[in-house]
Amino acid sequence: MIKARVTVTLKNGVLDPQGKAIEHALTGLGFDGVGQVRQGKVFDLELEGADKAKAEADLKAMCDKLLANTVIENYAVEIA
Amino acid sequence: MIKARVTVTLKNGVLDPQGKAIEHALTGLGFDGVGQVRQGKVFDLELEGADKAKAEADLKAMCDKLLANTVIENYAVEIA
């Protein structure tokens, strides 16, 4: 079994109102010096088999088809 | 300026209906051998200053107070 982590983040320049809200909330809680905050998603997946190259290709296809919106998001695949 | 990434994931044993839905969707799209899928959140933060120890302490406090629900979630702090 292969364990993988996929991280999906917004591309630079794409507005992130959720991140902005967190930024303001942190400042409001008294944390000084908080700059830009951006929120993304992480997926932890388990895949059957032991072929890491196939797993990586599959994971990239999963990102393109379902996990990420490649118009506005980047993704990174990490295999443990 | 310090760049940091905070990853928040559900603790083991906590039900993740969103992850389950993704699991079914991936299987429905024709991806074989997809086991458990769990979804989490990732925050990319910029902090002023250069004191990494202080930044790490601040980030842990931010997680405890705002970014994570420590009853059901774990967090990991990574400083770039």
What do these coordinates show?
The structure is a homodimer of 80-residue chains. Chain A is elongated and about 50 Å long. The first copy, chain A, has one domain: Mth169, Chain: A (2-Layer Sandwich). The model of chain A has no long low-confidence stretch (mean pLDDT 97). Helix content of chain A is 35%, strand content 38%. With 80 residues, the first copy, chain A, is α+β, with helices and mostly antiparallel strands. Chain A has a three-stranded antiparallel β-sheet with strand order 2-1-3. Chain A starts with a strand and ends with a strand. Strand 2 of chain A pairs antiparallel with strand 2 of chain B, so a sheet runs across the interface.
Provide the descriptors you would attach to this structure in a database record.
homodimer; 80 residues; alpha+beta; Mth169, Chain: A; three-stranded antiparallel sheet; 2 helices; 3 strands; nucleotide-binding (chains A, B); EC 6.3.5.3 (chains A, B); phosphoribosylformylglycinamidine synthase activity (chains A, B); ATP binding (chains A, B)
